[in-house]
Design a protein that fits this description.
Elements (H helix, E strand, L loop, with lengths): L1 H12 L7 E2 L7 E3 L1 H9 L3 H12 L5 E6 L2 E6 L1 H14 L11 E5 L11 H19 L3 E6 L6 H12 L9 H17 L3 H14 L2 H25 L5 E2 L9 H10 L3 E4 L2 E4 L7 E4 L7 H16 L3 E7 L3 H13 L7 E7 L2 E3 L14 H17 L9 H21 L7 E3 L1 H5 L6 H18 L11 H10 L2 H10 L4 H20 L6 H20 L9
Parallel strand pairs: 5-6, 5-11, 6-7, 11-12, 13-14
Antiparallel strand pairs: 1-2, 2-4, 3-4, 8-9, 9-10
Helix pairs in contact: 2-3, 4-17, 6-7, 6-8, 8-9, 11-12, 13-14, 16-19, 16-20, 17-19, 17-20, 18-19, 19-20
The chain binds arginine.
């Protein structure tokens, strides 16, 4: 609706980039401060200008204009609301969907092999997948890439430790692999020469030594199996898994290009790229080894060549901000960037509310434990629900999975990505507040009303206050998804969905719905939009709750 209104006003005001704000609720739907700007330019009173503009806009069936102070406030007419609402009822699931957009690559999830999948990677996975769903829905051609951490000196260290402790890699669990790695680092503190041993094994790995390769391969496959289980549980599938090792045979070409273009230079036996306003990035270490940065450089080169994207999104924690800035700057210096926009969606850190779910000091929180606990808590909710009696234990388990996982996902997505996540189980699982289960429940409530009410036929008629409020919220859906995409912020969709669900619940509590065609239609509208929002937030809907 905002877009349509903006278009209309653009013509009247003869302003190419005219944009509307959301108005304070009691004032109308949208607002503009354009009169203030014009008044300043022409040294006049903004109120006078606003009045003049209102005259210019004149009367129409789409919206009403009010002047308040120097602001212009616009309220959509019922006629306009109905027009858009009918569109939704006709297009149903396709409402808001677009076609023929640009191309995007999204780098997300990207855990490290031989380590467990931490909650940090969970953030990246969930936010990344949500961005994927949003861009895809808006018609973009999206390629998701899992930039698996499967290469680097750490794997030399791991292999060294496996050999030293004479372990059979086939028999090691991910946890044991992680512990081996930790032991190496402990020993290394005492015996710094061990670093050299790790480096040697990585060098062997790079040169294709069969034993090093065999061990690396086993560890990698084990991790992938483990990660796949997690992705399955999260119902997330990433288009391409292209790990760091993939770029192994492309690194030398990329390194050559950095030299040829005079972007990299030698320094104390290493090869580095210098920047005006940042510390240098290392491309080759003095021992000739490549780095995380080198592989990211190769990856961006490969992505631009392979996908010709208009946009590349990196969904990675804020702790890698410097690395990303260096990477983007280097890409620019190398002349690769051209028209590709590069974005680092730098998410905040994950914290546990103290005492609620803390692990022993220093231990990273394991995602698996979080998900298990979420499912257990969801099972409690279901056990206590009214439908519990009609459900088989199989059904309960499946519902608990969907509710538990949905709760964890929503908890992450409801916050602006830059903010840290404070993980508090009570908040995550609450049925009454701003939570995943609350939204799932609201959506199922609409569904059950629709099932009870059966077929209906709706025509345009006057809207009562509660009805108008819900319809107004419903027709904001398109602008919300657009905003979420352009600001890389799924939380905008989460906030909107929560708001809509709450508004519907007021409507549901105050007005009889069954037998009233108009209210049935509104219920269907809410159902369609809420379900779509949940999908954009990567959250599924259970069959019952
Ligand atoms: N594996 C890295 C880590 O866990 C994240 C990789 C993110 N993607 C990238 N292109 N650097 O820290």
């Amino acid at each position: 609706m905002r877009e349509i209104l903006e278009e209309k006003l653009k013509e009247i005001f003869k302003e190419k980039d005219f944009k509307l704000e959301k108005a304070p609720e009691e004032r109308g739907d949208y607002a503009s401060g354009i009169a203030f700007r014009v008044a300043k330019e022409e040294k006049r009173d903004p109120k006078e200008v606003a009045k003049e503009l209102k005259e210019k806009i004149g009367e129409n069936t789409f919206f009403q204009t009010e002047v308040a102070g120097g602001f212009l406030n616009f309220s959509l007419t019922e006629e306009a609301l109905w027009k858009e609402f009918f569109k939704l009822l006709k297009e149903k699931e396709d409402y808001g969907k677009k076609k023929g957009g640009k191309k995007a690559v999204i780098d997300y999830s990207s855990p490290n092999v031989a380590k467990s999948f931490g909650v940090g990677h969970l953030r990246s996975t969930i936010i990344g997948q949500s961005l994927y769903n949003i861009y895809d829905f808006l018609g973009w051609d999206v390629a998701g890439i899992n930039h698996l951490g499967d290469w680097g000196t750490q794997y030399g260290k791991l292999i060294y430790q496996i050999k030293k402790e004479e372990k059979d890699p086939e028999k090691l669990s991910i946890k044991e692999l992680e512990e081996l790695y930790v032991r190496f680092h402990k020993d290394e503190e005492k015996y710094p020469e061990l670093k050299e041993e790790g480096r040697k094994w990585f060098s062997k790995l790079e040169k294709g030594d069969p034993e090093a390769r065999r061990i690396w391969e086993i560890c990698k496959n084990k991790s992938l199996e483990e990660f796949d289980k997690i992705y399955k549980e999260l119902e997330i599938e990433i288009d391409h898994t292209i790990g760091e090792s993939f770029y192994e045979d492309k690194l030398s070409e990329v390194i050559k290009e950095t030299k040829r273009k005079g972007v990299a230079k030698e320094s104390k036996g290493a090869l580095i790229i210098e920047f005006d306003d940042m510390p240098p990035a290392m491309i080759l270490k003095s021992d000739g080894g490549t780095t995380y940065f080198t592989r990211d450089l190769a990856a961006i080169w490969h992505r631009i060549k392979e996908f010709s994207p208009d946009l590349i999104i990196y969904e990675i924690g804020a702790d890698q901000s410097l690395h990303m800035k260096q990477l983007f700057a280097a890409t620019e210096m190398l002349g690769w960037k051209k028209s590709t926009e590069l974005i680092h969606v730098a998410h905040g850190m994950f914290r546990l509310k103290e005492g609620k779910f803390s692990t022993r000091k220093g231990k990273t929180v394991h995602l698996k434990e979080v998900l298990e606990l979420a499912k257990e808590k969801a099972e409690e909710i279901i056990e206590n629900s009214m439908t519990a009696g009609d459900l088989s234990s199989e059904e309960k388990k499946e519902i608990a999975r969907i509710v538990g996982i949905g709760a964890v996902k929503y908890n992450d997505l409801k916050r602006y990505y830059k903010r840290d996540v404070l993980f508090d189980w009570e908040q995550v699982m609450q049925l009454k507040g701003d939570s995943g289960p609350y939204l799932q429940y609201a959506c199922l409530r609409c569904k059950s009303v629709l099932e009870k009410g059966g077929k209906y036929e709706v025509k345009e008629e006057g809207l009562e206050k509660e009805e108008r409020r819900v319809v107004k919220k419903i027709v904001r859906f398109k602008e919300v998804t657009e905003m979420a995409a352009t600001s890389f912020s799924p939380n905008i969709i989460a906030e909107y969905a929560y708001d809509l669900a709450r508004e519907y619940n007021v409507f549901y509590d105050n007005l009889p719905i069954l037998g009233n065609e108009k209210r049935m239609a509104i219920t269907e509208g809410v159902f369609i939009v809420l379900k779509r929002c949940l999908y954009l937030l990567t959250i599924s809907l259970p069959s019952k709750m």
